Amino acid sequence: MAPATETVSSSKKIALAGWREGAAKQAILDFVARTCEGSDAVPVEERVAVFDNDGTLWCEKPMPIQLDFILRRLVEMAEAEPELRDRQPWKAAYERDYAWLGALMAEHYAGDDSNVKILGAGILAAYEGISVEDFEARSDEFLRTAQHPTLGRGYLECAYAPMVELLAYLEANGFSNYIASGGGRDFMRPISQEVYGIPRERVIGSASTFAYTNDERGGTITHKAEADYLDDGPQKPIRIWSRAGRRPLLAAGNSNGDVPMLQFTKHDDKPTLRLLVLHDDDKREFDYTAGAEQALEQAGQDGWTVVSVKNDWATVF
Fold first, then answer.
1. What is the mean pLDDT of residues 119-126?
2. Among 211, 231, 281, 308, which residue has the least CB neighbours within 10 Å?
3. Residue 105 banded pLDDT, cuts 50, 70, 90
4. CA of residue 68 relative to chain centroid, distance
């Protein structure tokens, strides 16, 4: 296990400067030390860490970043086809009815997905027939040009600096980091390497099904108006296993939808760490627990490490 020890030694140069001294930071340092040194050291190939994205790696309020992207597309469709303005979700998008959208997310975390399915159908219709390259180009342009509505910064500047530091710290210690998000896989891929240092092939997220057509360009893959899977709740462990082929050693999330992923990150014979980000800083970001009630209760019962934005992060962005 000598190489593992050497990895820890070199990683000491990577300070978690954005983390305040306290229980959360110490839990991370202790976990990495146990994973990489001594009798509990874990082979590098088994060092897998998974992270939710919205609310865990970047800001998700007042709405998830991808939802802003989708709503703009729905407005475009409603402007081109007036008959859509009386149908959800185009109606809510066109009328800027954020109350409907906010209630939808609250209902989802309470177990009622009736309106989520309505929104999902609209999302699938919005990008039907668009090639994967064109969709990626649109996502990339949006993420590089659009501004957060209240924070006064571009969306790519809304990643949490302490979490980006954590990703780098883990990578320096031989970890393979994955994103496991309820958001769209192909929406995040264009910027995952640049923003998080996570290669696009390690992005796990919700997806539609595809169609392939042979043509003079070497073939084209297009989006179908059909869901493949929603990577949330119980689907997260399934998709992590499907992609990584391993049970993670570390998982980080912030909502009820992350509970199964955090529960799945359990080993009887290896170090594990479950992090739950608590948004409790209305001065530097936002203060909310809606959609995280079950996760916070589970964290208390199972001894997960709760990360307070207010108390544990010296900086947010």
1. 90
2. 211
3. confident
4. 15
Residue 173: CB atoms within 10 Å? 22
Binned at pLDDT 50, 70 and 90, residue 26 comes out as: very high
The per-residue pLDDT for 11 is 46
- What amino acid is encoded at 304 in this protein? W
Structural domains of the chain, ranges and CATH numbers in brackets: 2-58+156-312 (3.40.50.1000), 65-127 (no CATH)
User: What are the distances in angstroms from CA 294 to CA 111, 297, 300, 314?
Assistant: 11, 5, 10, 27
Residue 58 is given by DSSP the state B
pLDDT at 14: 60
E-strand stretches of the chain: 48-51, 176-184, 203-213, 220-229, 250-253, 273-280, 287-288, 305-308
Distance (Å, whole) CA 265 – CA 262: 5
Q: Is 217 exposed, middle or buried (0-12, 13-18, 19+ CB in 10 A)?
A: exposed
pLDDT in tens, 133-177: 999 999 999 999 999 999 999 999 999 999 999 999 999 999 999
Peptide bond into 62 cis (omega under 30): yes
Stated as kind and residue range, the H or E segment containing 189 is: helix 185-196
Instruction: Determine contact, residues 304/298, Cβ cutoff 8 Å.
Output: yes
Tokens for 177?
A: 């980091």
Question: Who contacts 254 (Cβ-Cβ below 8 Å, separation ≥6)?
Answer: 52, 55, 56, 60, 276, 277, 278, 279, 292, 295
Q: What was the pLDDT predicted at 104?
A: 81
The angle at the Cα of 273, spanning 290 to 309, to the nearest 5 degrees, equals 40
Query: In 3D, which of 89, 86, 55, 54 has the Cα closest to residue 72?
Result: 89
Q: Which residues contact 10 (CB under 8 A, 6 or more apart)?
A: 172
The answer to whether 156 and 143 have CB atoms below 8 angstroms apart is: yes
